[in-house]
Specification:
eight-stranded parallel β-barrel; globular; 12 strands; alpha/beta; 288 residues; 10 helices
Amino acid sequence: MNTRKPTAKIGLSTASVYPESTASCFELAARLGYDGVELMVGIDPLSTQIDAVERLVDYHHLPVIAIHAPCLLITQRVWGTDPWEKLERSAEAAKKLGADVVVVHPPFRWQRDYARGFVEGIARLEAETGVVFAVENMYPWRAPGKGLQAYAPSWDPTEQSYAHTTLDLSHSSTAEQDCVELAATMGKTLKHVHLTDGTGSAKDEHLVPGRGTQRAADLLNGLADNDFRGHIIIEINTRRCSSRSEREIDLVESLEFTRKHFVRTADAVSRRSAFAVTSDGEVSELTP
């Protein structure tokens, strides 16, 4: 029987503390007990300055375990406008900071030349740099009565031959997918998880895990059972928090949820309390 504990690191995305800064994310992650940070390049000016990020790593003794390339709509001009150059710089940043994963979104449909050679280009970059590029699941942009296919070659990375993928639970919610089934389809390509939640809304909600309808707990349990050794990153939206203390509550709840459910089934069963009932009907907990 395998009694080794799951070894995946649990990290905090710098996007999870926005509108606070990348520096604030390091401080919070270190103090709350996260294993590392995912750097969302472009979330603020500091995130694009890798030398400054290195100083944060050294000061807080907390590693950057993943780089999120600047491929969002709001980061289209971060590190230039050439999408391949952005990915090359992301790989350089990953190497300099000691991260082993670059998270990347599929191209927007209007990026025709980039999209045309994207699958092959990602494979080429992995071979040339030695860095894992984990392509993230996205979703169709939903409008009343129809869905807009905003990504090419597809918003669903399982439809292409990527070697590595990222599973984002808010995106699977918006796409009306089941995260557990999607993880199974991704199979051995699944390298990276953005742990969050959603209610199936057309909006990309990024709720605290457990507050939506995605089967986040079942996913974590299944990952542990399958000895998942990638990274689990808390990527939630805390912009509506009225104070830092409220934001901290969300970050603590997310970390505790992950630690609680990222356990093997056998271990979870063995940790359940046993009870005894006396002849008088009194219930007492049995100590191991």
